[in-house]
Amino acid sequence: MLKKVIILSSIQLVFLAGCQTSEELSEKDFTQYVNPIIGTAPTTTESGLKHGGGTENNAMVQPSVTMPFGMTNWSPQTTNTEKKCVSSYYYKDTLITGFRGSHWLSGSCTQEYGSTAVMPIFGQLVCNPAKRGSTYDHATEISKPNYYKVELGTYQITSEMTATTRCGLLRFTFQKEGDGHIVVNPNSDEGQGFVQVIPEKNEIVGFNPIHRIYQGWGKPAGFSGYFVMRVEKTADSYGVYSEDQISSGISKLENQPNLGAYFSFKVKKGEQIKVKIGTSFVSIDQARKNLDTEIPDFDFETVQQNLKNTWNEILSKIEVETQNNDELVKFYTAMFHSFQQPRTYNDIDGQHPRFDGNDQTDTICNGNYYGDVSAWDTYRALHPLYNLIAPEYNADMVKSILAMGKVRGWIPIFPQWNSYTAAMIGDHAVSIVAEAYIKGTIDLTEAEYQLMKHNATETPATFEEYVDGKSRRALPSYLKYGYIPLEDSVQEAFHKKEQVSRTLEYAYDDFCLAQVAKKMGKTDDYNYFMKRGQNYRNVFDPAVNNMNGRFANGTFTKEFDKNKKMFYITEGTPWQYNWYVPQDVEGLIGLMGGKEKFNQTLDAFFADGQYWHGNEPGHQIPFMYTYSGEPWKSTKEVRNILKTEYGTGPGGLSGNDDSGQMSAWYIFGAIGFYPVCPSLPEYAVTGPVFEKVTIKLGNGKTLVLSAPGNSEKNCYVKSIRFNNKAIANYRFSHADLLNGGTVEFEMTDQIPVN
Fold it and tell me: What are phi and psi of 452, to 5 degrees?
């Protein structure tokens, strides 16, 4: 059983409103099982090493101290850039160069943006991030959701961090008497930005302009990352710098390479200097307002305790019971990683930069406006998790997606840095909206439905709009042929070509839209999009019993090897993408020759080691045996993945965590059911790996999963009873889950006979 720890909690839910509090007794400290260091080193898992490469072999998470869905995440910094595919922290690095207020998409290969770094220095003042790094020892490093601590060996400074939604609070303890310094810099790679010292307020303020990548690469995003840093101790001197050039007594600098500012102090041995930083995407004044509201003083212990309480509130939404501490660490670290993004974009008073707004702002009056939606990844399991246990947050996220679409008339496909990107394939923001509507998390207006339909049926009036990332890529070809032929190389996209994968994913999105049309009583639209949902059949090549590239004349390419990466497949092989028909698994089974042949092919796929868990397109594959009459094989494969593709060390994730999708998969796999097709309100059941799971549902009800005798040996599901009713089809409906109650799994070590 979990250890019982009584703590008095003042749960400050500032990740939503910044001011709402409640007091209650929390009996368990779930944060003790969270290890944010997991995933900060190259993967050590089998499939990741076999199929991944380069940045794909690192989970790309950082050991953030952050509120759930925080605007700014606070991380130790071992890299000094905002370049694509470079996280702020890597376990292998030997120097810490600062403590970053980060806007990195957790677990991604996108870009850092609008970030700020703070670094304490002792002795001679060194400002340049490339030269100011300090040694550190992982043995002295403490990383928790609410607190980070490390000893900076070079400077003999103990550094600690905690945070609120929009602000960070740092505490530096100087172990020697002498000259101490606090250096702050915008992390601009473009030689841009601004800093100003306001000594009478003990403040340094500034901003870091944000630029786009993918479609619109290099263009200004139309807003900046703003900060206000306030120091508790009055400085003896101050200045600004650029690269190695330090200008003492100068209070302002802008648009110079590697610029920043500093405060200097005389410090005593053991003296602490506290630093708090407010951030905003709107202005310096708004950053100051956020700071004054969220951290009105320098009370480090209260801030970190409030953050700990908030994380316990989130983590306790699913309580699992086991004697295995490693399993607790894996599960609750996955929960932590699943509540990083989407990112809160609005300030404490609701102001936020307008989507694609070119320095314009809007104000949200109710709830929060969220950005950085990694839709291609997170529609699969992360948003389904929110719909189940955190629907009120997901409702705001979906409303934010729709609000983005209303600004320019197009729902963004992969909205990052509050801009259009068209970075990935598919149109999965539509899936996220559709799922929330189908499962009752939100309602939709007629205008919002038409916005979704617009994405699926129209292209922009001008080529410039299309190049900028608006609308589906290659939609004219898809509408003309029912698939994207190989002749269409899809040039106006970061992911060029990949025609087969695009066809498969558009077919899924069309199916999602059909479900919305059905619920809204739009029969003609339902029939139209359901037909389009069958377009996956148009790229299935019977000659190879697999999805394959197809030309405009209807013939299939001979350039086919199911085990090798092909240009018409996204981040994988034809065999890995063959199973991407989540909306019609039964139809795919028929295409492949029936259940027996389907199972034989799926058996061979796993036996040959072709399953790659480190990338998302195959995440539904292990659950497909529940459709083909051999559910026990799904149980076996899911348990094997949970055991071999997730660990407790720095390399314990098998690929990019992608804004928590990899972690959300773990949560569903471990509790025993999974949303194979998120826009259908049902789940494939494989059985939990724990003897007992208690889920606090978003509607206030409780669902208990009981599996007495569950073990690595007794892993197969012999029978299922849901509120004393037998479940024979290995399916849970979303409606039944929301009713709460008890699910009883009878476990056995024998393969069940169907």
Answer: -65, -45
